[in-house]
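Standup notes
- DV: blocked on the single-chain target, sequence here:
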Amino acid sequence: EEAAEYARELRAEVQGVPYSQAAVAQRGKARQPAASSPAVARAAKREAEEKELAKMMMTRKKRRLYDRMQYGIEKKAAAAEVLAAKRVALTPAKAAKSKRLRKDA
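- DV (later): unblocked, structure below
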């Protein structure tokens, strides 16, 4: 991130933009995502409501099937998360173990 900021400052300097104007522009960009977060939240809420309405319109049989499918998807995602955590935990240990084996050999 620092390298990207340094590159932006260099480009601005080459273009002849005064530092004060570049700093003001940078601060304006930093504030922009905060202003868009309520819009993103509203869109997510609207999408969740639409899904709930569509689910309410399903027959009981289709709704049960949909619920079971969602349960399976969540279960699979949770298992993948556990495996990813184990992989992260084992990676430093594996690297240390292989270094130790190289030293012994």
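- Follow-up: Residues 60-104 form the longest helix (45 residues).
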